[in-house]
């Protein structure tokens, strides 16, 4: 495997798990632990959600962490303005690319998506933001439109595209084929993979994406996330070391502490605790290490 980065989205996608709502203090504590662990990037939240979210993101952005701190935004200038007001210049801008999302969910068309993407990118560029573009529901999208969407982003200076398996419909072989094909078509544009665990394949798909050349993969502590969750950070680190001998120098002795803290904050007990409501959290393992986190 080549060099890659790990983006932790516990504070954004993880908090979308049913019944989970971190306090501002808990978000700051989780961000500090993730930074000490050594992840490359933290997706700190969605400022457009409101004042409480903005307070938390602003606090995290002001910590002076070593890792990058980014926010999630829709194709709306107002979303980006909310992120800028929090002191964040690492902006993730996400738009729908499948017709199911574009037409059935939003009642729009493909031209509308491209126009909104162009407008959002122009606004972000005017404020000197470092932007990554997300392709929501990419795994169910028409490939030619996905390519058009990605190429527009690249033309406007974006260097990374997030391929989102939004409803977890991929399998490892298909993931490898899709990411390989997209990477070949986009040249030097980085591919980031965001997998969901609806069929229990988020971790396997994430590893397959890395083998296909993904430059970045997303994970959450304990696999916490919307519906069935995301790829588990702990399991990803263990798989990379145990199956591929890949190491990065992360401070993995912190993993048990991080996992326990997130479990308590989320109200999701660890397996073996004798309490109900578990399922997202698995043992992290003190010896786990991961791939070479890119700068």
UniProtKB/TrEMBL annotation:
A Pfam family annotated for this UniProt entry: HMGL-like
Keywords: Transferase
UniProt-listed SUPFAM superfamilies: Aldolase (SSF51569)
CDD domains documented for this protein: DRE_TIM_NifV (cd07939)
Cross-referenced Gene3D superfamilies: Aldolase class I (3.20.20.70)
Pyruvate carboxyltransferase domain location: 4-256
Keyword presence, Transferase: yes
UniProt xrefs under InterPro entries: AIPM/Hcit_synth_CS, Aldolase_TIM, NifV/FrbC, PYR_CT
GO biological process assignments: carboxylic acid metabolic process
Source organism superkingdom: Bacteria
MF terms (GO), sorted A to Z: acyltransferase activity, acyl groups converted into alkyl on transfer
Similarity comment: family membership: Belongs to the alpha-IPM synthase/homocitrate synthase family.
Stated name of the protein: Homocitrate synthase
Lineage: Bacteria, Bacillati, Bacillota, Clostridia, Eubacteriales
């Amino acid at each position: 495997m080549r060099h890659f980065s790990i983006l932790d989205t516990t504070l954004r996608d993880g908090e979308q798990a049913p019944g989970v709502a971190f306090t501002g203090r808990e978000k700051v504590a989780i961000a500090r632990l993730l930074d000490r662990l050594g992840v490359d990037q933290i997706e700190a939240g969605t400022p457009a959600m409101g004042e409480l979210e903005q307070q938390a993101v602003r606090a995290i952005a002001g910590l002076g962490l070593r890792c990058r701190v980014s926010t999630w935004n829709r194709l709306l200038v107002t979303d980006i303005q909310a992120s800028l007001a929090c002191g964040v210049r690492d902006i993730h801008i996400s738009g729908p690319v499948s017709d199911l999302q574009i037409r059935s969910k939003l009642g729009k068309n493909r031209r509308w998506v491209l126009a909104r993407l162009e407008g959002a990118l122009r606004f972000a560029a005017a404020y000197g933001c470092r932007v990554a573009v997300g392709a929501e529901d990419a795994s169910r999208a028409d490939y030619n439109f996905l390519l058009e969407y990605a190429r527009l982003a690249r033309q406007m200076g974006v260097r990374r595209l997030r391929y989102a398996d939004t409803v977890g419909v991929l399998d490892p072989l298909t993931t490898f084929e899709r990411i390989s094909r997209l990477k070949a078509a986009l040249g030097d544009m980085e591919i980031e993979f965001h997998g969901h665990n609806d069929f229990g394949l988020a971790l396997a798909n994430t590893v397959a994406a890395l083998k296909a050349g993904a430059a970045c993969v997303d994970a959450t502590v304990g696999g916490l996330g919307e519906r069935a969750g995301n790829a588990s950070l702990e399991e990803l680190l263990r798989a990379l070391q145990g199956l591929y001998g890949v190491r990065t120098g992360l401070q993995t002795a912190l993993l048990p502490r991080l996992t326990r803290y997130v479990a308590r904050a989320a109200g999701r007990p660890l397996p073996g605790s004798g309490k109900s409501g578990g399922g997202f959290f698995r043992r992290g393992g003190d010896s786990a290490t991961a791939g070479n986190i890119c700068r």
